[in-house]
Amino acid sequence: MNLKHKAIYCLSKYPETRNSDIKLTNAIWFEFHSNKIKRIDNRNYVALIDLYDLPREDNIKRVRAKLNSEGKYLPTEKEVLKQRRLLEKQYREEYSPSNPSRG
After folding, report:
1. Where in the chain are the domains?
2. Is the dihedral of CA 7, 80, 66, 25 positive or negative?
């Protein structure tokens, strides 16, 4: 199963993951890579060497953002949605070819 399908599964099953990329990353790790998560003293840990085998948060965030841009799996909290739209607008303005500060 590719990363997009893993993200869709978790975004569907756990609506709270729509509001936090960290929660989405954790959900994907627990659902699909639980063998890499160790439980010590009642806390979850991932060995540094295992990070090479786990999907990275920035890749998961990119997949979630692409789904959101298609109008899918939008945040359940209005404030999160508002903040993401504001950041998207700022990003587009900053990196626009018509921005005179670029150059």
Report:
1. 3-94
2. negative
- pLDDT attached to residue 5: 98
Residues 6+ apart with CB under 8 A from 73: 8, 11, 12, 18, 64, 67
Q: What would the mean pLDDT of 85-98 be, rounded to a whole number?
A: 71
Orientation of helix 21-32 relative to helix 57-69, angle to 10°: 110
DSSP 42: T
pLDDT of the residue at 103: 58
Q: Give CA torsion, residues 44, 21, 15, 92, to 10 deg.
A: 180
How many other β-carbons are positioned within 10 Å of the β-carbon of residue 86?
10
Q: What is the pLDDT of residues 33-89, one digit of tens each?
A: 999 999 999 999 999 999 999 999 999 999 999 999 898 998 988 888 778 776 676
Structure tokens at 77: 């909290």
Residues 6+ apart with CB under 8 A from 69: none
